[in-house]
Amino acid sequence: MYLSNTAKRTAMSSIAIHHSGCMNLIDRSQRTGRLHPTMCSQSMKVPLVLSESGIRFSLTNESVRIKFIKGLKNNKLTVLCNGYGPKSDYVGIGERKNEFHAEPLSGDVSKKTCIPDLAPQSGTKGASSEESLFQTKPKKLDSEVTPSSTYQILPKRWIIVILCFFAFLLCNMDRVNMSIAILPMSSEFHWDHTTVGLVQSSFFWGYLLTQIAGGVWADRVGGKQVLGFGVIWWSLATMATPIAAKLGLPVLLIVRACMGIGEGVAMPAMNNLLSKWVPLNERSRSLALVYSGMYLGSVTGLAFSPSLIHKFSWPSVFWSFGFLGSFWYFAWQHLASSSPLEDPGISTEEKTLIAKSSLNKEPIDEIPWKLLLSKVPVWALIVCHFCHNYGTFILLTWMPTYYCQVLKFNLTESGLFSVLPWLSMAAAANFGGWIADTLVSNGVSVTNVRKLMQSLGFLGPAFFLTQLSHINSPFEAVLCMICSQGFDAFSQSGLYSNHQDIGPRYAGVLLGLSNTAGVLAGVIGTAATGYILQHGTWDDVFKVAVGLYLGGTVVWNLFATGERIFD
């Protein structure tokens, strides 16, 4: 930004800074500023503080401190107000990049309205001369900041990712314990296959209700509150399950549906959080890590449930797993924030790094439903999420029963062998995330990466589930399950990453939309499997899943995209 003519005539006594459509004329000698009348509708004073470290001024209750490294060159000065928004919204001050360093401005630069903060800054030393003002030690440029050179322990964004990982670990621990406990419960309460399917599917009734609502809620108020609510809610419902079962089947169905309400907001809230915290080139890895928490939660739940049931009876599974949520909630309240803008502990360098490369946006007031539902890639997400979740939820809820009835494993063996496919998913999800991020970093289009990863996530399970019809060996059957679920995990770098690709501003809502279809698949698939087993065989169960996997592959490759279609 060039200095104004007035500034040139007064020997550099004032600086003109262009910011979001307004011209601020800052008079250094008077330490005040006013909005240029030709650019703004009104004039007002803007506080300005000079110090040894540079100039400090305020806009819309947010401050930015500029430290000039080499001073003014040829009557030109560059200012960087690097906030959160598209690159076109960034406004600079300085002729060369190595002439300044700026701390990030909180908020979306595109939303700034030139309303000043009239409270003067305190505790700064005045500069007596131009030389003392501009002579500061050089600092590393924002463009040169890298995680390895900036953070001594762990970047704050990865603390958020790890906390989300543990939330999803608890999510699936509390979900899969029923798939083990249902075996002694069905014996105690004399439930047939249809009733077992009803109990298993009741979770999805509540889960379905909060998919879109959770996405809208998270996009409006932020993901921290929504995810925190979800964990506490489903933890309480988990602990109430044994009492509900003894009170009768209707009460149990209601409590399991309430548990689904809590878990239903988790995925949209997490998607909202990561869209604000994680840069593009780390997205697949971060999502893969969080979703691997789900898989390891299944591993943990399936591994520990049998021993707890043998030692303390089946209610102990629900009480112990549910209580763990309180520990997570305590850590979440003390360590997490909905976005870098709200986090008091994040470093300046990390905030700058995220500001430059993340897809963060401010909370939205209205959801453009008609626009969202008018786009073919959105419907590709919805259809493919249904196709994917049908097979996934069948294995999640019915795998121990398959091992027990078909492979003749006992309760402990069913739990332990059910662990192996989920371990393979945890490993494959992170491996797939690394592959996807590497391909994107090497110039492969996001669209091609998403199509490749999701095709593997569909065709791999379809192939190995088909093989189960021709296998009699328990070892080979377990191996097919392991391979099927391992390939399934590549979906985390396919359709599960695509919501942030096509519409980062509406990431929570988009995931809520597609996951609603996915939950419907869970409700239908879990209940239908019980009905199919009453009148058919496990081969019939697997054939339906394979058909949906193949159909999803076609839809995804024809209509999906990795390009942003919503601003």
UniProtKB/TrEMBL annotation:
The record's keywords, sorted A to Z, are: Chloroplast, Membrane, Plastid, Transit peptide, Transmembrane, Transmembrane helix
Question: Where are the membrane-spanning stretches?
Answer: 158-182, 202-219, 226-245, 286-306, 312-331, 378-399, 506-533, 540-559
InterPro entries found in the cross-reference section: MFS, MFS_dom, MFS_Na/Anion_cotransporter, MFS_trans_sf, SLC17A9-like
Per the record, the major location class is: membrane
UniProt-annotated stretches for the region Disordered: 120-140
Subcellular location as annotated: Membrane; Plastid, Chloroplast
Q: How does the protein's chain sit in the membrane according to the entry? A: Multi-pass membrane protein
Query: Keyword Plastid, does the record have it?
Result: yes
Cite the Major facilitator superfamily (MFS) profile domain residue spans from the record. 160-564
Q: Which PROSITE patterns match?
A: MFS (PS50850)
Q: Where is the composition biased (Polar residues)?
A: 121-135
GO molecular function annotation: phosphate transmembrane transporter activity
Keyword Signal applies: no
GO CC term (a single one): plastid membrane
Cite a single Pfam family from the UniProt record.
MFS_1
- The leader peptide range reads none
UniProt xrefs under PANTHER family = SODIUM-DEPENDENT PHOSPHATE TRANSPORT PROTEIN 1, CHLOROPLASTIC (PTHR11662:SF446), SOLUTE CARRIER FAMILY 17 (PTHR11662)
Q: Which family does it belong to?
A: Belongs to the major facilitator superfamily. Sodium/anion cotransporter (TC 2.A.1.14) family.
Stated name of the protein: Major facilitator superfamily (MFS) profile domain-containing protein
